[in-house]
Specification:
alpha/beta, Rossmann fold, Pantoate--beta-alanine Ligase, Chain: A,domain 2, 2 domains, 3-stranded antiparallel sheet, about 40% helix, binds pantoate
Length: about 280
């Protein structure tokens, strides 16, 4: 596996693979790998001749009070894990390489960035869309792989790719969970043992919501109340619980069609998100 730090060298590596007739798969990440990332890399390698993984903790998607400085970074461990999962190239640019002095153009995707996480993280998705657009232009992949845990991110990127005619297919891969249901996340390391055990309520409450919808409950207020009633028995502080249209991400007055039930809850320092998609 090659580790490449510059845009120029990355472009050359991709061009070489193309001339060899290989298709290009791409997994953008911020490192701190867990099984969720590895499943994206494994899937990408299965589908493509060249699997490119980027590792870049993107400053523009963090708010001023968020964990940019403390975000877990371990280059050697991540590169080792990426190689074992099948990556051919790790692109590991510096902040200066991605955002040289004076770089100020931004990619804004309205509407779908304003709901759910966008309410409490106002500039987050602009940072995500900007860096992913830059990475798409650098890597020029045929397909790019994202995890369903960050469901809103997948909707934003799909919309951006469509609106701006990026010739890339977005693949959304199922959330990987711990045996007790907690969605794998790089931020789970912030949890104390007590918080870690309480955080299982997130998936448990989503499952309870799914069962309730299955029994005929279609009122989002009742579903949200059910989820809330479970979470407030723990130390979790609810940021939001929402029932939204799976495509527009607008809150729905009634659960029907393709919907997402999404939530964000703080346990101590960690803001955890999770969701389920329902076809009703
Ligand atoms: O999901 C992530 O890790 C990041 O938001 C992404 C897509 C790599 C952009 O920085």
């Amino acid at each position: 596996m090659q580790t490449i730090h510059t845009i120029q060298k990355l472009r050359l590596a991709v061009q070489k693979a193309r001339t060899e007739g290989k298709s290009i798969g791409f997994v953008p990440t911020m490192g701190a790998f867990h099984q969720g990332h590895l499943s994206l890399i494994q899937r990408c390698k299965k589908d493509h001749g060249l699997c490119v993984v980027s590792i870049f903790v993107n400053p523009t998607q963090f708010g001023p009070k968020e964990d940019y400085r403390n975000y877990p970074r371990d280059k050697r461990r991540d590169c080792r894990m990426a190689a074992a999962a099948g990556a051919d190239v790790v692109f590991y640019p510096s902040v200066e390489e991605m955002y040289p002095f004076g770089c100020c153009s931004l990619v804004d995707v309205p509407d779908v960035t304003k709901t759910l996480c966008g309410k409490s993280r106002p500039h987050h998705f602009r940072g995500v869309a900007t860096v992913v657009a830059k990475l798409f232009l650098i890597v020029n992949p045929d397909q790019a792989y994202f995890g369903q845990k960050d469901y809103q991110q997948t909707v934003v990127i799909q919309k951006m790719a469509r609106d701006l005619n990026f010739p890339v297919k977005i693949r959304v891969i199922a959330t990987v969970r711990e045996p007790d249901g907690l969605a794998m996340s790089s931020r789970n390391i912030y949890l104390t043992p007590q918080e870690r055990s309480e955080a299982t309520v997130l998936f448990a409450s989503l499952q309870a919501a799914k069962r309730s919808v299955g029994k005929g409950e279609k009122d989002p207020k009742a579903i949200k109340a059910l989820i809330r009633s479970m979470i407030i028995r723990t130390s979790g502080r609810i940021d939001y619980i929402e029932c939204a249209d799976a495509q527009t991400l607008r809150p729905v007055p009634r659960l029907e069609g393709r919907c997402v039930i999404a939530l964000a809850v703080f346990f101590g320092k960690a803001r955890l998100i999770d969701n389920i998609i329902l076809q009703i």
